[in-house]
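Pilot study result, target chain (622 residues):
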Amino acid sequence: MRSAVSGVLGVVWVAACAGEATPPTVDDLVAFQASGANRALRHRGGSTPLALTVHLADGTAVPVPWTAFAGDRATVGDLVVTVTLTADALGWSVRAATPVRGVELTLGDLPAAVGARVIVDGAQSWSFAGALEVPAGQALPRDPQGRVRFPETLGDPLADAAHTSVFHGEVAGAFSLCVDDGDGRNTRWSAVTFERPGEGLRVRVFDGLLDDDAARAPGSDGRYTRAGRITVARAHPGRPFACVRSPAQTPRTPPPFPRGWWSWNTLFARVTAADLDRQVTAMAALDPAAKHVTVDDGWEERWGDWRPSTAFGGTVEAVAQRLHARGYTLGLWLAPFAVDPASAWVTEHPGWFLRRLDGTPLRADLVPGRSFAILDATHPEARAHLTALFRGLRAAGVDLFKIDFLYAAARPALRADPTATGLQAYALGLQAIVEGAGGAHINGCGAVLAPTLPWVQSVRVGADNTFERVTPGWGSVLALARNLSARGWVVDRGVTLDPDQPVTRELPLDEGRAFLAVAAMTGAFGYGDDLTALGEDRLGLYREAWFTGLRDALPGSPGRPQDASEAPGRTLLPSPLADLVGGFRAAPRARTPTVFALTTPSGPRWVLLHGDEDARSVRVRR
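Predicted structure:
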């Protein structure tokens, strides 16, 4: 089937019969292989040598030549390095007399024709994800010793570099590389990076980036051990990062996402209990099947204390009882690891909080103009505090917790347990929250994706769709579609994609339709507009048959991009806010996939989304 899409945008809801996928040819295969004394990656009939370097905590980089190996083991100075090789994975372990920071695996000089495009998946929820072009001559920043320099603020949504992808990376639709600890966990900051210092493309995999990632706990013999694994898989345009789920893992079905109204994109920090009653009445008229309300930031007196403010106008218990009586569930927003420095918790329990490497209290600038103390999840009393907080709110009637700014718990810092990495501490904190939440739906936001997935039912996969005092715009639609396309792998881990709630106010009607289509493709649709203030033309968008059919057909089953690796952009815009600022409108942005395939109970469907100025023709399987 061929469809022409023209104009600034277009969204088409297409139904057709599915065709058979074409099996890969020999030239499409990708695998690690032993090549004489070397190790290499085979891809599309070619072979690129691998180089291995061990990084110690003191900053020393130790190259490990393949010629030093006898079988799968090599001794280089004080290091004993073991490497195991299969077609789809390279596993490694290092034993040393001093702490080991991590391992770097380098693939040098891939042909530019293969590697000019990459797909990246940033550090956390709000990070950029999508296809980019790597310009010729681009090289990563380095410190005076020549080592790659990663931003100290890794985890800050605006600090992710265009060439850095935490945990995952894909090269031009040819192959995907993913990193973990050897058993599918992610307890260290890791990255796949891309550069073109010459004509070829260089791919580097780093396991361990930051100072607190170093292995600090020696074994019984006084030596330190670090282990990890790098996985490779043939990429597919409709499934970026194919390596994140090995064939041995059984996909879980994502849980249903509660459809309803969420306060942030309408009221921001001005939400009140009375607003909820008005929105529920309007939503009942528009969508009787929507039975949920989430109260976002603004209900609380202070971050960290988590008591309703006087301005909110009601207790959590009273709001929950009123909603439950009408057949609705209640969601509540918290930033569980962030505490206002004015809170009594900070002065009465200073040992519960992260410290900078010089020992002074760490203050994280999580929102403009505001800094917060961050709970140390390795401290047992801090974890008990988190569990008690969520247990009390659950008993008060909260059915869903939107937990935000999670990445703050993984910041490099001094902790009560000096042997824990930032991401190990992060997982301990999430475990304490889940224990207290008592079966409530956990929605992760500002989340480091890979290590978050075992603990949540849904996870945000992009930045906020709109901002206070900023007119909603087309950039939000494109950013959402890019992140949705790159992060569909989350669903195979049994977690629903949260696209944030779309808004149609102030948008041209066609742009509003596109916004609704992209959000509905996740299977986790929610209302972000002020439903009491929309005119009939906007309310009519929510009633159009194509939209209601799409919204109702996809509980937890997202659309998959068929062209995720095509037409990359040259400019990283990490947030829709940057897209909405006038100076960025003319930038050659990272492009959005055009063809999304969906599987529904009534058969396969396609959504065609066009965000460029020029007309183009696309093909979908018939």
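One observation from the pilot: The chain has 13 helices and 33 strands. A full batch analysis is planned for the follow-on phase.
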